[in-house]
Design brief:
The complex is a heterodimer of chains A (265) and B (432). Chain A is α/β, with parallel strands linked by helices. Chain A is built from 8 helices and 12 strands. Chain B is α/β, with parallel strands linked by helices and 432 residues long. Chain B has 2 domains: 6-273, no CATH class; 380-432, no CATH class. Classes of the chains: A alpha/beta (265), B alpha/beta (432).
């Protein structure tokens, strides 16, 4: 929830980015303050996932214009790992399987790296095991997932739970959750959303990237943004998501285009 | 094909060594004399020999390896770090010479120095020693056989199961010396044993280790064989291992190549009777200017045999890995089921791998699958790890380690597995 002493976490101004030389993001403006939940919606191909991955520093996306300040720092001067340590977290749409790396080992490495950055105590394997098991209860995850390779052979729902588990461990300032609801059945959606809700505080913020309104029944946004053609074309409150669910995306696009024509004329 | 200096070089190796003491067994002395003859007739292979096409061993012939003048007396503390707590027996050889004060045997079966054991187990030794590892056309096996004396003799009686592993530790200590590790394992019908061959060095010296191992499995015997080559980075390591499988026997091996400037491992597994199984896995992890060559041959001579093979190479620096995996299915070896996979990871632009599956199939009702891949680290996996705060090099190390862990995990001795995992992690950490 928004509150009076909230601070600006993320300030995106005129962001442009390309993939393989094709421009996908064509000037995005967005401000996210502490305590806020933002939803970014839009049709397939509108640039939602590109926006999320660009913020996290995926090497396939080249920033060609604009700037992004995160807590007053230029985000694009930071390597992906430095962004993570500074408190930016991307929940992947398709979490990557890493055969041969035990999930427990991966989670502990990530946790300790971020802890060290914050000048806090690192945990040895035994201490971490106790700690992570508590966090897993939040997501109703079976501890057996600690012994398996990272995401290998996990179902879609298990992968998404594992993403939110990482979020719970790393305690980011800004979590960008890319299509976290995709591939989840209704029970899993309730559990995952419940986990996210428990992680929301006055000092952090969440950006939910989603195609459907379904997730927003569980995690209620303060703002809903609609992306189309690489830009944010409409911003509203949570009621906008309900309207999109009934009317689809076409009308937003049409409205935006006619507004744009009116401005030019 | 020969190097002009080849024969001189071999002669100097033969003459430079003290005559091994004669053992009072006619067949043993004849075997050795036969091998000396073969050394005289053979030459050091060059890259013009098909079997040595990718591996130039001429640097070996430029160093005048001297005999081990006197056995170095090591203290238990010197080799403590190589000890395996699980081992029920350990035979230690220092520069090829048996060190009884460092060895022990609590297995209740024969785990003895060959020189002594051969007289007590005369008929077993006679029917196997030098009978599996062919030396008439293999100069390095012939050289080793010419110096038959100290070595490991492991004899497991019928239906005996030795639960704890047998550790054979070959320690190199002296510079510019040649040693000839030898090992014979005879597993009786229905018996089971795990044997670990471990090649280590105390210092980063130049030396030449030329090993021969023979393993004979009787009907229904199970042998697990772990081979760890962690020689000095300046060493030369050439080894031949021959395995013979009787009916329904099962052989599993994991070989790990980490050390040596140039190493070559030939592993030949013969399915000599019906229904035998083998699983031979290997990993080479090399960097700098190392060369690691693994040549394997699985010979399905009889029907209903099964073989599985996973070989991996992780190549950094300007190193060069070679894998040649031959699978032969002889006429009549019907219902053979064989699969082979060669997977290779190149960490730098200068790293190089030659991988060659070689299938020779002369039976029609068989299943033989093989595949080879050569690649680099996956960029999506790297980004995923970095997005969780891991530095680029830490992420690369972890993925490299994971690639190797698939093979290391198959080692059935926990302490050795853990130690090798740490070694691999440390190794990958210092890759450029």
């Amino acid at each position: 929830m928004m509150h009076q002493d909230s601070k600006t976490l993320l300030a995106v101004r005129g962001l442009r980015a390309t993939v393989n030389g094709i421009e996908i993001l064509k000037g995005i403006d967005l401000t996210v303050k502490t305590g806020e939940v933002h939803a970014i919606m839009g049709p397939n191909g509108s640039g939602k996932s590109t926006f999320a991955k660009t913020l996290a520093g995926h090497p396939a996306y080249e920033v060609t214009g604009g700037e992004v300040m995160f807590e007053g720092k230029n985000l694009f001067e930071l390597a992906p790992e430095a962004r993570a340590r500074a408190g930016v977290f991307l929940g992947f749409q398709y979490p990557v399987e890493i055969p041969g790396v035990a999930n427990s080992q991966f989670l502990r490495l990530a946790y300790n790296t971020v802890q060290a950055q914050r000048g806090k105590e690192e945990l040895d394997p035994l201490e971490f095991d106790d700690f992570v098991r508590e966090k897993m209860k939040l997501l109703e995850m079976n501890p057996d997932f600690l012994d398996r390779s990272v995401n290998e052979g996990f179902s879609g729902g298990e992968k998404k739970r594992n993403e939110i588990l990482q979020m719970a461990l790393l305690e980011p300032r800004l979590a960008i959750l890319d299509e976290t609801d995709s591939g989840l059945d209704i029970d899993a959606l309730r559990v995952v959303a419940g986990g996210v809700n428990q992680l929301i505080t006055r000092d952090n913020a969440i950006v939910l990237v989603t195609h459907y309104q379904r997730l927003l029944n569980y995690i209620v946004p303060d703002y809903v943004h609609v992306m189309d053609g690489g830009r944010i074309v409409k911003t509203g409150g949570k009621e906008l998501a309900v309207e999109l669910e009934t009317r689809g995306y076409d009308w937003v696009s049409v409205e935006h285009k006619s507004a744009a024509r009116a401005t030019t004329a | 094909m020969s190097v002009t200096t080849g024969n001189n070089y071999l002669e100097s190796l033969l003459q430079g060594q003290p005559q091994p003491p004669a053992v009072p067994l006619a067949w043993f002395n004849e075997l050795r004399a036969d091998a000396v003859d073969r050394v005289g007739a053979l030459t050091v292979p060059t890259t013009r020999d098909e079997e040595w096409r990718f591996t130039d061993i001429s640097p070996l012939t430029r160093i005048p390896f001297q005999p081990v003048r006197s056995a170095v007396q090591l203290k238990p503390a010197d080799i403590e770090r190589f000890a395996l707590p699980e081992a029920a027996a350990c035979l230690v050889f220092v520069d090829g010479v048996h060190a009884p004060q460092l060895s022990f045997n609590k297995t209740g079966v024969v785990v003895a120095n060959l020189a002594a054991g051969v007289t007590q187990h005369d008929s077993t030794a006679e029917s196997h020693l030098g009978r599996h590892a062919e030396f008439h056309n293999n100069v390095f096996a012939a050289l080793n056989t010419a110096f038959l004396y100290d070595g490991a003799l492991v004899v497991i009686p019928r239906n005996a199961a030795v639960a704890a592993p047998v550790h054979l530790l070959y320690v190199a200590t002296q510079t510019e010396t040649a040693s000839y590790p030898r090992c014979l394992v005879v597993a009786g019908s229905g018996s089971a044993v795990t044997v670990i061959e471990d090649y280590v060095s105390l210092r980063d010296e130049v030396y030449f280790s030329n090993a021969v191992t023979e393993i004979a499995l009787a009907d229904n015997a199970h042998v697990s064989h772990v081979r760890v080559q962690r020689d000095s980075g300046h060493a030369f390591h050439i080894a031949n291992c021959a395995v013979s499988l009787a009916q329904a026997s099962r052989y599993r091996s994991v070989s790990v190549a980490l050390g040596a400037r140039i190493s070559r491992y030939n592993l030949n597994v013969l399915h000599a009777a019906e229904g035998a199984e083998c699983a031979i896995d290997g990993i080479a992890l090399i960097a700098d200017n190392q060369l690691a060559d693994t040549h394997t041959c699985i010979d399905h001579a009889k029907p209903r045999g099964m073989s599985r093979q996973l070989h991996k190479c992780i190549v950094g620096g300007a190193a060069h890995a070679v894998f040649n995996g031959k699978i032969v299915v002889r006429p009549g070896a019907q219902l053979t089921d064989s699969s082979q996979s060669s997977r290779n990871l190149l960490l730098t632009g200068k790293a190089h791998v030659d991988t060659k599956p070689q299938l020779e199939i002369f039976a029609d009702d068989v299943k033989c699958a093989h595949g080879a891949t050569v690649g680099q680290l996956d960029s999506e996996e790297l980004f995923y790890l970095r997005s969780r705060g891991l530095a680029d090099d830490a992420a690369r190390n972890l993925l490299t380690y994971a690639f190797g862990a698939e093979v290391i995990d198959r080692i059935p001795v926990a302490s050795l597995k853990r130690r090798l995992e740490q070694t691999v992690l440390a190794r990958t950490t210092r890759q450029p």
